[in-house]
Amino acid sequence: MARIQLIKIVLTACIAVSVVHSDESDRREWTVDGVKREALVVPPAMQAGTPAPVVFAFHGHGGSMQNSARKFNMENLWPEALLVCMQGLNTPGKFDPSGERAGWQKYVGDQGDRDLKFFDQVLATLKKEYSIDEKRVYATGHSNGGGFTYVLWAARGDVFAAVAPSAGGAGGKIAALRPLPAMHIAGENDERVPYETQKRAMAAIRTLNGCKDEGEPWATAGTLVGTLYSSDSGTPFVSVVYPGGHAFPSEAPDLIVKFFKNHTKK
Fold first, then answer.
1. SS (H, E, C) the chain
2. What's residue 155's pLDDT?
């Protein structure tokens, strides 16, 4: 009995070490303006010499890069893509005024553009160390991460083939956006970023992208319903609406991957 117990302890320890090592193998560090920054970089499962698409996925306020990697699940849904989950820094927010939890800058120029600078360094590293397809770089994020996706669209729009923010506030950033294929995911009962606010942002983006007034069914996943607004200029918009609150729906990544796979930068 004692021997069996010892074997169980040894096996448990081996499994724990394996998990930690796997996590550490993808963890990368950068120094931005003297501050250490981290990201999880999950290499693509691809044949040698085949450029990989890149997906940046951003956690919400109070989240983490590990949480982001689990929620967006790109490693399983799109294994050929290189997944990048960056870690935010403590940031003041509406529900965290003292800034005790991790988050992202809310607009261009906020926080000294620390997160835009971080993004620039990470992308530069990817270009040096991996064979990436620069015509297939994408960004998505939930809540504060969705808001930062809009910041990236406003400040680095020429980098991306498409973006897919979820429950993120576009706010005053829309004026700085250029037309780009985009998806927005919104809960009709969102208690943090009111649905009516998100509806107005989606309408403004459809106008920006030159979309047709009438939408058509695009795809569904669980309670999520996607509506496509086509554009003669090649910059369509997809609204994904569900009868939920602010939480990130588990089915959303399926639609995000479907949308990203449909778009390559011209």
1. CHHHHHHHHHHHHHHHHHHHHHHHHHEEEEEECCEEEEEEEECCCCCCCCCEEEEEEECCCCCCHHHHHHHHCHHHHCCCCEEEEECCEECCECCECCCCCEECCCCCCHHHHHHHHHHHHHHHHHHHHCCEEEEEEEEEEECHHHHHHHHHHHHHHHHCCEEEEECCCCHHHHHHCCCCCEEEEEECCCCCCCHHHHHHHHHHHHHHCCECCCCEEEEEECCEEEEEECECCCCCEEEEEECCCCCCCCCHHHHHHHHHHCCCCC
2. 98
